[in-house]
Specification:
The complex is a heterodimer. Chain A is of the alpha+beta class. Chain A has two domains: 131 residues, no CATH class; 161 residues, START domain (Alpha-D-Glucose-1,6-Bisphosphate, Chain A, domain 4, 2-Layer Sandwich), CATH 3.30.530. In chain A, 45% of the residues lie in helices and 18% in strands. Chain A has nine helices and seven strands, in the order αααααβαββββββααα. Chain A is elongated and about 80 Å long. Chain B has two domains: 222 residues, Alpha-Beta Complex (Quinone Oxidoreductase, Chain A, domain 1), CATH 3.90.180.10; 163 residues, NAD(P)-binding Rossmann-like Domain (Rossmann fold, 3-Layer(aba) Sandwich). Chain B has 13 helices and 18 strands. The longest helix of chain B is centred in the C-terminal third of the chain and has 14 residues. The radius of gyration of chain B is 20 Å and the shape is globular. Classes of the chains: A alpha+beta, B alpha/beta. Chains A and B meet through helix 8 and helix 9 of A and strand 4 of B.
């Protein structure tokens, strides 16, 4: 399976800093170059269609009467056209707000095209419209629909490519020397202290580490990983073994910052969630976005090293990155949990 | 316990909520004896700060008695009387070690939210939105204080709550505003906004050697307080006078050596400029109304300093970058690094250089919090500062 990965960079052989200059969502299939070019084309097309949506929406909102005349409506239906203008604006905005790969937003444009075509079909049947105008309008919409479908399908297929292997790089600065951080990280049993979803990590053999990760509804996912490279005070690289619940490999680097200003800890990780039911479970597990999770884990790592433990607030009792925020007031659950002997304060 | 909770724009309620508990080993629990409403709380009250949630306890100016300490807090004991600084700071990160406590790198568990809006995250703050940590605030009977081994300052016996309370925020905040002006003896300092922070900025400018202090506001009682108690030598009522003209007049045309914006994102002004910003704010085309900031930049003398201590949240429009660049101005700003100033300012109070309680105009019970917010927001009954007692 490993052969399918574009593995340069994970063995720690190349120099560190170039890792972060790579694209955020590189294609990791067998032909990375061509795939990524195709996808870039789709992304650019999506942006063009986004601008088209916004321009058309503005025209529909500001000059509905003119639009009506152009499409055979004889100056009527201005309110409906305004409404569709708002829809165009929203889908244009959605394309730009949907990140680098606006797959969902593009499919919503396709749905919008279907609505437009249905409306034009109904208009064509009405005696109050001009048939010719409606036909021209329908032909134009069909042309745009073809572009939309093409773009959405391209984006969807490249999204599937992404699912075959997702690569992430994240880093954090810690006010500590590289050798201390390396030593802390090398004690893999420490991971649950700052990796929120990790239940336990044990060394089970020479260079073999067993991971148990919490899934939703009390389930767990387990796998073994092998340490592929271990350079004291510099880096640790690993690779999951055959049959892992989540195939993954990666490297963590500890780079001293110039001027004795602490250490940059960089994680470069590639993982491939399995297909089928287990894959779904993993997807749920990672639904706060894997990059966010690594960011959170790294910041919790910083908190543990610098302050002694993960910093909790009323709204974020688990520390960094609780997406579902509680109100900022003490909760009963925490009040009960806090009576554990570990935290017992003075009476 | 009882606590003042945010339920939406202009909707504060005093609710029954669970008591706080130790969540981290360096926490302490404080029984609140006095807490104040800050001008920046009004930005939450007016709904201008994103990432608020119904039920959030507000309040970042509070003091009280330690009733419980976590296992890793060795400097405090149950029964100690402490005043708590509003930025939460770990004391271990590089920011804290350079005394930039309001930029603590560890105290905001929701740093990713702040990064989305601000690029990088500042420190967590009590009761000041989820983007700044989602910590319950101090307008309550009890409050949890994280990093209690770093923040809270013991109050000497004999000092009243009202004398010590403002060390939590507005006194150090005003002091830092003045300090950022790098005052040399003889300087003229203009201060926009005569709320509590503006009052302390003026009093501090005086302590730091400013010769002339010009107070700018529209509320007569606040201008009077500035002149009578905070050391203002001149006052400008911006509704009666054109500020630029008045400042030029007062300084022989050159402008003040430094200008302090103690107003922030919800500035008022007569005329078209206010309407313009209010309109853009309502349409979400800008989040903040920078009227005072624009004036401060335009008015400042060539090569002078503009010190921004009033709170801004997001994005502004028509920043006078031409004036700022061509006239070699310096802009300094920041949430106050309160922990840096608490001890020296406590010393000032003990020496009798200043009695910070002069700003208090209203004393109310915690249960009156909704009314107090309304009173303070609308500046009714000459309200400058409300102290709530649980």
């Amino acid at each position: 399976m490993q052969g399918a990965y574009e593995s340069r960079g994970f063995d720690g052989e190349d120099s560190g800093p170039d890792v972060v200059r790579r694209p955020r969502h590189p294609s990791l299939g067998r032909h990375p170059q061509s795939r990524s070019l195709q996808k870039q084309g789709a992304e650019r097309l999506a942006q063009g269609l986004g601008w088209f949506s916004i321009s058309l929406g503005l025209v529909e909102i500001l000059a509905p009467r003119i639009v009506s005349r152009l499409i055979g409506g004889n100056g009527r239906y201005t309110n409906l056209i305004r409404l569709y203008g708002v829809r165009e604006l929203l889908s244009g905005a959605a394309i730009f707000g949907d990140g680098a790969r606006p797959t969902t937003a593009m499919w919503s444009r396709v749905a919008g095209d279907a609505v437009d075509l249905a409306t034009l079909a109904a208009a064509g049947a009405s005696p109050r419209t001009s048939r010719g105008g409606v036909a021209i309008a329908a032909a134009s919409v069909l042309g745009v629909t073809a572009l939309d479908v093409y773009c959405a399908r391209r984006l969807s297929s490249s999204a599937k490519d992404g699912a075959a292997g997702i690569r992430m790089t994240r880093s954090v600065v810690i006010n500590c020397a590289p050798h201390d951080l390396y030593a802390f990280w090398r004690e893999f049993e420490n991971f649950p202290r700052f990796m929120l979803h990790v239940k336990s990590v044990r060394t089970t053999g020479p260079g073999i580490v067993h991971w148990v990760v919490n899934g939703p509804a009390g389930t767990t996912v387990e796998w073994d990983a092998r340490i592929t490279r271990d350079v004291p005070n510099e880096l640790i690289a690993w690779q999951s073994l055959e049959g892992a619940g989540i195939e993954n490999h990666g490297v963590v680097r500890f780079e001293p910052r110039p001027g004795n200003r602490g250490t940059i800890v960089r994680v470069d990780l590639l993982y491939r969630p399995p297909a089928g039911a287990a894959g779904k479970l993993v997807a749920t597990l990672f639904n706060e976005s894997p990059e966010q999770q690594i960011y959170d884990d790294l910041h919790r790592f910083k908190q543990v090293v610098e302050t002694g433990e993960v910093v909790r607030s009323d709204a974020s009792p688990d520390g960094m990155g609780d997406v579902l925020q509680q109100p900022a007031q003490p909760s009963r659950r925490l009040h009960d949990a806090a009576t554990s002997p570990d935290l017992g304060g003075t009476p | 316990m009882r606590a003042a909770c945010w339920h939406g724009k202009h909707d504060m309620r005093v609710d029954d909520v669970p008591d706080p508990a130790i969540m981290n080993r360096r926490d302490a629990i404080v029984r609140v004896t006095a807490t104040a409403i800050c001008g920046s709380d009004l930005h939450l009250y007016d709904g201008f700060v994103p990432t608020m949630k119904k039920g959030d306890i507000l309040g970042h100016e509070f003091m009280g008695e330690v009733v419980e300490v976590g296992p890793d807090v060795s400097n405090l004991r149950v029964g100690d009387r402490v005043v708590v600084p509003f930025p939460i700071a770990c004391g271990n990160c590089r920011a804290c070690q350079s005394q930039a406590y309001s930029l603590c790198e560890n105290s905001n568990p929701n740093a990713w939210m702040a990064e989305k809006l601000l690029g990088h995250s500042p420190a967590g703050i009590y009761g000041y939105s989820h983007m700044l940590g989602g910590f319950a605030g101090g307008q309550a009977e009890y409050a949890r204080v994280p990093f209690a081994d770093v923040g809270p300052l013991k109050v000497p016996p004999g000092m009243s709550d009202e004398q010590a309370l403002f060390l939590s925020d507005v006194f150090p905040t005003g002091y830092m505003a003045a300090e950022m002006c790098d005052i040399t003896p003889g300087d003229t300092i203009a201060v926009w906004g005569c709320g509590p922070v503006g009052q302390f900025a003026m009093a501090s400018a005086k302590m730091l050697g400013a010769a002339r202090i010009i107070a700018i506001d529209r509320v007569p009682e606040r201008l009077a307080m500035a002149a009578r108690r905070a050391g203002a030598t001149d006052t400008i009522d911006y509704e009666a006078q054109e500020v630029m003209e008045a400042l030029k007049e007062m300084t022989g045309g050159v402008g003040p050596d430094a200008c302090i914006d103690a107003v922030g994102m919800e500035a008022h002004a007569p005329g078209i400029m206010y309407a313009y910003d209010r309109f853009k704010q309502a349409l979400m085309l800008e989040t903040d109304r920078p009227i005072a900031l624009r004036q401060a930049i335009m008015a400042c003398r060539n090569g002078g300093t503009v010190s921004v201590i009033g709170v801004y949240g997001g994005f502004i429009d028509k920043f006078p970058i031409g004036s700022f660049m061509n006239r070699s101005l310096t802009l300094r700003t920041g949430q106050c690094h309160v922990q840096r100033y608490m001890k020296p300012l406590l010393q000032r109070i003990e020496n009798g250089d200043i009695d910070p309680s002069f700003i208090v105009t209203h004393r109310m019970g915690l249960d009156d919090a909704p009314e107090a917010y309304d009173l303070f927001k609308n500046k009714q009954d000459d309200c400058v500062k409300v102290v709530l007692t649980p």
